[in-house]
Every structure is written in structure tokens, then in C-alpha cells.
Amino acid sequence: FFFFFFFPSPKISPFFFFFFFSFPKNFPFFFFFFFLMIRRPPRSTLSSSSAASDVYKRQPYYQSLLCFDIAMTDMYPIQPPLCRFYSYGMRINPNLYDTGHVCLSLLGTWDGEAACEKWSPVNSVIAHIIQSMQALVLTKEPYYNEAGYDHFMGDPKAVKFSKQYNEDTALVRIRHMMAMADNPPVDWRREVQQHYTSIVPGIMRRLQAVVDGGQTPPDAAASSSSASGGSITADGIVLPATPGFIAALRYHLTLLRQQYVRITTQWKAKDAELKQMRKK
User: How far apart are the C-alpha atoms of 245 and 34, rounded to whole Å?
Assistant: First the structure.
């Protein structure tokens, strides 16, 4: 079961699903490949003050493309499926390890306290895993995902550490994005290329605005964040950003721009070559 989390573009709505089933012979796993692109509802359906309008924005994973493999063993649904994250050797979230391990009570990889947090052969389905990823893992302030850290929410030291974690995640996110563009999952090369080509320019523009002094463009306007005590951009950066982060972000954006020019040029040349071959 292979799926993408595409943290949404505000221009397109609402949900698109593409399924591919595979039943390998003499193999103990049933694979269910799934591609999910999540986009928030049209702007016209949301008031500017609606909490729903910020449900995906203002977090470090906004418009990110994250890939997972999920496999149902012969013990499914008695036991939860197996899950692996395409980490590219980076830890982008406390629940998503650099080894690809996914820490989630619903998967049985973390001890949930309440019964509803654990896998149930009767009530649990794959959709619950996806919903848990969205609601509990890919949050506005992932620092508090660490075990026990939520008890310190609001503490001045925790606020400082959470802000730093979001800044670190913003940098890791760029490196993760670049690694995926250079080596996308085999079955989803075209989707990764489309996402990278259409979404990355907007991400670069918003992050450059932070580098230029914390000024944010309209689609990245800051809002208050009760946990951080400051304002937070669409990409989860708490303002004012620290000087060290600004310097590191400037360097990362330079690398991302260089890659964008290089890799999009390669993709266009390859597409042109394929079109020529089809004509022949």
C-alpha cells in the first residue's frame, strides 16, 4: 500500500484518489498502492476567520509530498499493516525516523493509552492510519509529538525549543524535497515531477520572503499561534526567525534554486526526446 501525502495547493479541490491493486503470486503480502492528493476546499467556501482555512497551512509540511509504503500481511486485519516512510535518510518529524520507521500507536509501533489509539481488527481501517498521520503526526508544532513533551506546552523553554524544531524542520524539508526530486519512487516519477514543477516555486517564494526580513506574501500571511506565542507563516516558521536560521535558509534556497533549474531542464529535455521518439 503506497501512498503520498500532498499538503495542499489552495487552488485546487477537494480530493483525488488513484488506486492500483496487485496480487503477486506466491507472496505473503497483499499490496494496495494508493496515491492521495489532499487539497483544501475552495477559498469561496471558507470565511477568512474560519479555522478550516488554516487546517493545512501554518505547519512545516504545508504543500510537502511525503511517501509511504503500506503492506497488508496475511495476518491483516487481525494485526495492523506494515508501514515505511520514504525518509531519504532524514528525520523530518519525531514520528518519522530517518530509517523509515513510522511511530504510531495505530500501527502497533507505539504504546497507545486509550483503546481508540490501538489497532482494532473490527473497527480499524487503512483510512484511520491516513487520518492519524494528518491529525496527530504532521502537526503545526511537531516538537510536542515527542513522548511527554506535550505536558510542557506553554513553558518558555518548550516554546523556544518548538520554534527551533520548526526552523530545523524547514531546512530538512528542503533537503528531503531535493532528494525526492533526484530519486523519486519508481512508480510515481511523473507525479513527483508534476508536484515539484508546480509547487516548489511558490515554496521558494514564501521562504525567500522570510529571508528578506520576515515579510510574508499574501498566501503565507502570518497568524497567531497560541502554543508558540508568536506568529507563524504558512510553512510553519515562527516569526521573527532566528539569525542563524535565516543564514541557513538562504543557503538552502540557493541549493534548491540551482537544483530546480537543473532538474526541470533535464525533465523538459527528456520529455521532448520522448515526444520525438513517439512521432517516429
Answer: 36
Q: Which three-class secondary structure state does DSSP give residue 25?
A: coil
C-alpha closest to that of 93 among 145, 132, 162 = 145
- Verify whether residue 83 is a known catalytic residue: no
Tens digit of each residue's pLDDT (9 = 90 or more) over 199-222: 999 999 999 999 998 545 445 445
Supply 164's cell numbers.
527551533
Element (H, E) at 169: helix 156-182
Cell 505547519, residue?
59
- Cα–Cα distance, 3 to 126 (Å, whole number): 11
Whole-structure pTM value = 0.78
Of the candidates 67, 83, 103, 116, the residue annotated as catalytic is 103
Strand partners, 231: 224, 239
Query: What's the pLDDT tens digit per position in 53-92?
Result: 344 578 899 999 999 989 998 999 999 999 999 999 999 9
Rounded Cα gap, residues 223 and 53, in angstroms? 12
Write down the H helix ranges in 183-280.
189-211, 243-279
For 22, list phi and psi in degrees, rounded to 5. Answer: -140, 130
